[in-house]
């Protein structure tokens, strides 16, 4: 395994020193130091202090988002993703047509891996199709697999695509479901106004950062580079509800890279994974960063 790949697997988005790298990365010290300097020049790493380095904003990985073996246990501060679900009727209509895309259906192992890499109490957000006769059993299975993996159902909020009318004319096609789970009991992000008033200082209670809306009413992107692209504005909202600035956000099936842009705008680090090379190239151009293949 190359030195830079070892750095990615070992430190993710955490800061590290050359001494840390010498202790944890295999290879002679001059080679490790040289590859780190090279990665800074290429924009993969950034120098945040004298002798201290970090992945630049985040990571873009060209690979299979179902393979999270490179991530250590409980290293992610949040997961927000939209998998290319293998549902014939749900994949048709509007701008979504995944006939030539690598579609699949989640299996229990997928949620077991999500639970392994996510920190306790942190949130998993899945974009899912509006329930219909074609997919209602699969949506139920997703909830059961999540439960079996140790996730608790937290909330479900529809994303209403303002001003969008699908090709088939069905109103249900104008929405997607934003389904939110927590790994065990939800972390404390919600400000406890009563305790703050009574005792002074800041106090938090279990749940997202603020009361979730009844609906996310956000228009689709005007110029899309991916058929299932999510608006940056919507992702920024979700990121602020379910993560904190120090968290690393994972998007396993990053598509257009809009999650990465939303993380940049909200001062979060991120790890994006995308299998389709055409999409990887577009994300590289969008985020001005180089992809790494693990």
What's the SSE blueprint?
Blueprint: H1 3-11, E1 16-17, H2 18-24, H3 29-42, E2 45-49, E3 52-55, E4 58-62, E5 76-81, H4 108-117, E6 118-129, H5 136-148, E7 151-160, E8 175-183, E9 190-191, H6 193-199, E10 204-205, E11 216-217, H7 232-242, E12 248-251, H8 258-265, E13 269-274, H9 277-287, E14 291-292
Helix pairs in contact: 7-8
Description:
With 294 residues, the protein is of the alpha/beta class. It has 9 helices and 14 strands. The strands form 3 sheets. It has a 9-stranded mixed β-sheet with strand order 11-7-8-6-5-12-13-4-14. The longest helix has 14 residues, at 29-42. The relative contact order is 0.18.
Keywords:
Arc Repressor Mutant, subunit A, alpha/beta, Rossmann fold, 24% strand, 9-stranded mixed β-sheet, 294 residues
Strand content: 15-25%
Q: How is the main sheet built?
A: 9 strands, mixed
- CATH class of the largest domain, named Alpha Beta
Elements, N to C (H/E): HEHHEEEEHEHEEEHEEHEHEHE
Radius of gyration: 20 Å
For the secondary structure, the number of strands is: 14
Looking at how many chains there are and whether they match, the oligomeric state comes to single chain
Taken from the alpha-carbon principal axes, the silhouette is globular
Task: Give the CATH topology of the largest domain.
Answer: Rossmann fold
Structural class, please? alpha/beta
Distance between the termini: 9 Å
Query: What is the name of the CATH superfamily of the largest domain?
Result: Vaccinia Virus protein VP39
Number of domains: 2
- Percent helix range: 25-40%
What's the overall average pLDDT, rounded? 87
- CATH architecture of the largest domain, by name, is 3-Layer(aba) Sandwich
Q: Count of helical segments?
A: 9
* Low-confidence sequence ranges: none
Strand order of the largest sheet: 11-7-8-6-5-12-13-4-14
